[in-house]
Specification:
The protein is mainly α. It folds into two domains: 61 residues, no CATH class; 95 residues. Helix content is 57%, strand content 0%. It is built from eight helices and no strands. Helix 6 runs antiparallel to helix 7 and helix 7 packs across helix 8.
Length: 157
């Protein structure tokens, strides 16, 4: 599951694997013609939320922040994807890690709402999954302030 993973994350992972001489035969042998890792319209192996929410490009492609805030989730806090290169160049690896962790939380929340919408989760399962994420972030908030900040922003939504 990703948000724009087919447009960024998956190609980066493929290229990096090839640079390092890695082999990944399962990528090409799993599933069938219609359901595999490369199948754009199949959600069996990978759900790209940007793709499914925009009907695979037939409708507007909203940013993750736009989708998240429309659904009542914080989305991006003070850092956006465009900031990561500068953070890397200034060796702010912890800042990048913190940004990525809150992005994962946002992606998970959008995915859970998508699963509720498409019937893969019922309301009870959805509520338990969201509560599980909230409990996790609460338990980590003292040592990982970016999670506390995310929760605070979520409470204000």
């Amino acid at each position: 599951m990703s948000f724009n993973g087919r447009g960024f994350d998956v190609p980066v992972l493929k290229y990096r694997a090839m640079v390092h001489g890695m082999s990944c035969p399962r990528w090409f042998s799993e599933g069938d013609k219609w359901n595999n890792y490369d199948a754009r319209y199949s959600s069996t192996y990978h759900v790209d939320l940007l793709e499914v929410l925009s009907d695979f490009g037939a409708s507007a492609r909203c940013s993750m922040h736009e989708v998240a805030t429309a659904l009542g989730f914080p989305g991006k806090l003070e850092t956006a994807g465009d900031d990561v290169r500068g953070m890397f160049e200034s060796k702010d690896i912890q800042g990048i890690r913190n940004y990525c962790e809150t992005d994962v939380c946002t992606t998970l929340l959008i995915f859970l709402r998508w699963q509720l919408f498409n019937g893969a989760l019922n309301e009870g399962a959805y509520a338990r999954a969201v509560l599980g994420l909230q409990n996790y972030m609460s338990s980590e908030a003292e040592t990982r302030p970016h999670l506390a900040e995310f929760m605070h922003a979520w409470d204000k939504m």
